[in-house]
Design brief:
Elements (H helix, E strand, L loop, with lengths): L2 E5 L2 H10 L8 E5 L9 E2 L7 H10 L4 E4 L2 H5 L2 H6 L8 E3 L7 H4 L1 H10 L7 E5 L3 H10 L4 E5 L8 E4 L2 H12 L10 E5 L5 E9 L4 E3 L4 E2 L2 E3 L3 E4 L4 E4 L6 H21 L6 E10 L2 E8 L7 H4 L7 H10 L13 E9 L11 E2 L9 E4 L2 E3 L5 E3 L3 E9 L2 H12 L7 E2 L9
Parallel strand pairs: 1-2, 1-4, 2-3, 4-5
Antiparallel strand pairs: 6-9, 7-8, 7-9, 10-11, 10-16, 12-15, 13-14, 15-18, 16-17, 18-23, 18-24, 19-22, 20-23, 21-22
Helix pairs in contact: 7-8
Bound molecules: adenosine monophosphate and glycine.
Adenosine monophosphate (AMP) binds next to β17.
Amino acid sequence: MNVLVLGSGGREHAISWKIVQSPKINQLFIAPGNAGTASLGTNVALSVNDFDKIGHFILENDIDMLVVGPEDPLVRGIYDHFKKDGRFQHLAVIGPSSQAAMLEGSKDFAKSFMKKNNIPTAAYQSFSAAQIEEGIRFLEQQKPPYVLKADGLAAGKGVLICQSLEEAITELRAMLEGAKFGEASKKVVIEEFLEGVELSVFVLTDGKSYLILPEAKDYKRIGEGDTGLNTGGMGSISPVPFADKSFMKKVEDRIIKPTIKGLNEESISYQGFIFFGLINIQGEPFVIEYNARMGDPEAESVIPRIKTDLLDLFDGVAKGTLNKKSIAIDKRFTAAIFLVSGGYPEDYEKGKQISGLDKVNHSIVFHAGTTRGAQDKIYTNGGRVIAITSYGNTMKEALDLSYANAALVEFDKKYYRNDLGFDL
Ligand code: AMP
Ligand code: GLY
């Protein structure tokens, strides 16, 4: 099979790392990719949202399967773009239709879908600019903290948690009237604040059947002890000790099954990953959000625990034969630690030379914001630079190994959190 993976993060490096282990792979291309994916296949300078150019590349290179990493092209309809064009009849697209990707692309859609299907989630109400006064009155009836969510995609920044009513009203106005998040905040979901420990659960589905992948815990805040600004993710750990058999059964019965059933009842076709962002409230799982893709940095700990041929599973997704497949999971723990550029998630510098990668031993290096320069030197090219993933028989063993190797990779102003797993 010739495969094109879209994206340039650690997630896409992890997916590519797994794909090249498949006996089914012929040629692998990654667009645009990073310095890490360049060592597994051929990077192609294409933007993930330039569907026409991607289409030309697919035809010219006899691509059989397109694996879509990030949400943006999914929400913009990349699946539909290729499915409606006869020239791409034989192209397998791993990633949902734009309608299905609304589970991530519209918080209002996701909330009403959950409500309709009795899927446990925070109580909520949605407001448009014309309903701002009702929104304020609704806020006045709630208790702090107040959770405000821009309806559309806002690069992970569209959720605000406000401690005071005054701040919540100011932010609601900024979102609805001031277009704080542009088009994305033309509608705002106000919801009940939930308190618990978060975790990420993933399934791969062909729309009818599904396979549950290993779950993971993601560390979103920049600072130790989960303090400071939100980031794209500072690392991840899998499995999550509190997600035991009984908890995961609740997740499957109350959340996964009703989600697949609900999609079918609305005739929404879904071929790809569903990411359930969950919160554990005293042993009961609630949905915080859906995403229409794999998580990042979760992929960097989850994918290494999948023992089954991922390309064969993708083939099952595309052909609707996932019910004939099964998944084998490595029992060991994995811990992925992100090395980031100093200053991230605010201003940071790029173009710093990375050294010490050759010293990393017994860990996997997944690249994210990296690029290859002259003489094969590798430079930083983003905020999140490299994830270091290790296996261990215990969580501590996996973390210790990742931390030992994280210390060996050097670049100017390198930063990472030293406390992953502190809450498990
Ligand atoms: P989201 O973009 O929906 O993942 O939200 C970003 C983060 O905001 C989540 O990972 C949670 O930490 C937090 N969050 C979102 N919704 C709620 C809620 N209803 N209660 C408490 N925290 C929330
Ligand atoms: N780790 C959270 C995400 O991928 O959205």
